[in-house]
Amino acid sequence: MLKDRYFYPLAITLIAVMIWFALSASKHEELTLEKVVSNGYITQGEDLKMLTASPGMSYAYLEKTEKDPERVVLKTNVALKNAASAGIFAALGPEYEAAFANRDLTITVRARQGKIDPLSHFYMGYFTADVGDSGWIKQDLTQDWQDYKIEFTPKTPVNDNGIDYLGVWPGEKGTQDTMEIQSMKIDVIPSLKP
Asked: In whole angstroms, what is the distance from residue 74 CA to residue 114 CA?
């Protein structure tokens, strides 16, 4: 058995080595403009837990089952005519804002009607802090999973380091009817210019 004067320095050294090894082994990949342009943006699976619900709106994350993928169920008690937010949204950091500016984007939401009190339609949109939005674009829902798409070209931001938003508004009346989302993604449309 080691005496305290040997044990504690040895333990501290061992802990320091473990921390150093863990930090050096982790590979934090920097998000560059080129990577964002080539990979786009996607939220799916457990990342869906990171969505943000504006006041009066809510979503619940559901685990994968034999019949269904991981998904979120959305509903709201706020009518669309009172919209003063991006609904239930994914926040896109400054790297995405800079990479997507002045580029043609395809925005895709994979969705379906909810199982309880199903919605017949929803709205999706791309929102910026200061240079113009796509506005809310209506999409008709079905019982089966489908990809709902819009195209939009955000302008160059006036203020750097801002945040853009990919938002969904479940229905327009705010009656807490439901829809489900499996994924939300943004792809840069390749330019035809040489």
From this structure: 8
Query: Helix or strand or coil: residue 110?
Result: strand
Apex 177 CA angle, 174 and 178, nearest 5: 120
Question: Do 139 and 124 contact (CB within 8 A), yes or no?
Answer: yes
- Per-residue pLDDT at 115: 95
List the beta bridge partners of residue 59. 74
Low-confidence ranges of the chain (pLDDT < 70): 1-29, 160-161, 192-194
pTM beyond 0.70: yes
Pairing of strands 121-127, 164-169: antiparallel
Largest CA distance in the chain: 73
Tokens of 164: 């853009």
What gap in Å lies between CA 62 and CA 73, rounded to an integer? 8
pLDDT for 17 equals 45
Scored b (16 or more CB within 10 A) or e, 23-62 reads eeeeeeeeeeeeebeeebbebeeeebeebebbeebbbeee
At 165 the pLDDT is 95
Cα separation, 35 vs 68, in Å, equals 31
Mean pLDDT over each residue of the chain, to the nearest integer: 86
For the chain, state the CA radius of gyration: 22
